[in-house]
Amino acid sequence: MYRLVIFDLDGTLLNTITDLANACNYALRACCFKEHSIDTYKTYVGDGVYKLIWRMLPINERNDETVQRVKIIFDTYYATHNLDYTEPYAGIVPLLEKLQGCGIHCAVASNKPHEYTKELVKLMFGEKIELAFGQRQGIPCKPDPAIVLEIARHFQVSPEECIYVGDSDVDMYTAQNAGITSVAVLWGFRTEKELTEAGAHHVVRDTEALGRLIIGR
């Protein structure tokens, strides 16, 4: 049984894709750029807001000035619409309660901006998640392992006693870089093929299987 579980947020604990897509498309419309489908945005997320906006822009508009201009519009809209459709995936809340009952620490490491990460985690999960870090100035984004290792140090847990759960190749690379066991979930934004090719140690299809893997029974 592991002592600490570190979760990704978007696509792992929370289904946020509709709110993210709506905010992106709002910003694109405001700038007279072509919008994208929700499925397309599933391939754009995972590396932070800057790269999300970079990817959604027309190729000839991918420059820092345009990204920053569009990001301001995105941020303003998302700040008041990030809870329109966002909700935990089925089985997540009972899983967190079970882990808590077993004395297993639960934390979040996300490339989502820190203020949104903290807000969503507190609102959706309360004390079931003990620590949540998003993208912070001066701290490299995943797949750099800095955020995951910081969480492990906070709980005084060795990499061998920790497991990282995510839904993207970025998450699998993060765990690999941190020397931590990785678990890929298939209810998120990426395909099983992509996750296994990224080196996932385990792949699970539902929260019951995830719980058995973490607890060991």
Structure description:
- The chain is 47% helix and 16% strand.
- The chain has 217 residues and is α/β, with parallel strands linked by helices.
- The chain folds into 2 domains: 4-15 and 88-215, Rossmann fold (3-Layer(aba) Sandwich); 17-81, DNA polymerase, domain 1 (Orthogonal Bundle), CATH 1.10.150.
- The chain has a 6-stranded parallel sheet with strand order 5-4-1-6-7-8, sandwiched between helices.
- Helix 1 (17-30) crosses helix 4, helix 3 (49-56) packs across helix 4 (64-81) and helix 5 (92-101) packs parallel to helix 10.
- The chain starts with a strand and ends with a helix.
- The mean pLDDT is 96.
Instruction: Give the C-alpha Rg.
Output: 17 Å
Percent of residues in helices: 40-55%
Q: Work out the number of β strands.
A: 8
Instruction: Return residue spans where pLDDT drops below 50 for at least 5 consecutive residues.
Output: none
> What is the CATH H-level superfamily of the largest domain?
HAD superfamily/HAD-like
Counting structural domains, the number is 2
CATH topology of the largest domain: Rossmann fold
Beta strand %: 15-25%
CATH architecture of the largest domain: 3-Layer(aba) Sandwich
Structural class given helices, strands, pairing?
alpha/beta
